[in-house]
Amino acid sequence: MLPEMRMDDVIRLRKPHPCGNSDWVVVRIGADIGLRCLGCKRRILLPRREVSKRMKSYVHQSDAPADS
After folding, report:
1. How far apart are alpha carbons 52 and 1 in whole angstroms?
2. For residue 66, is it within any domain?
3. What is the largest CA-CA distance in the chain?
4. Tell me, what's the pLDDT at 57?
5. Residue 3: inside a domain, yes or no?
6. What is the DSSP letter of 20?
């Protein structure tokens, strides 16, 4: 099952980014999920299924309602 993501959620991925940080903020929602590294501010775009495989946990969940 794919996780319910919202804008501004902070997630932790299983493997760290080359900058050494593992925390990412969700900046785009759609068929692909846009993520921004909280360490170096680099942005990546991953398919939803790839994010669900790589995701370890939520660090902070946004209070905004989920987009339908």
Report:
1. 8
2. no
3. 34
4. 80
5. no
6. S
The C-alpha atoms of residue 18 and residue 21 are separated, in whole angstroms, by 7
The pair of three-digit structure tokens given for residue 61, joined into one six-digit string = 């969940």
The total number of structural domains that make up the chain: 1
18-40 pLDDT, tens digit per residue, is 999 999 999 999 889 999 999 99
Residue 35 located in a structural domain: yes
Residues 6 or more apart from 21 whose CB is under 8 A from it?
37, 38, 39, 40
pTM: 0.81
46 and 28 Cβ atoms separated by less than 8 Å: no
Q: Is the pLDDT of residue 2 over 70?
A: no
Q: Is residue 68 part of a domain?
A: no
Which ranges of the chain would DSSP assign to H, the alpha helix? 48-54
- Domain span at 27: 10-60
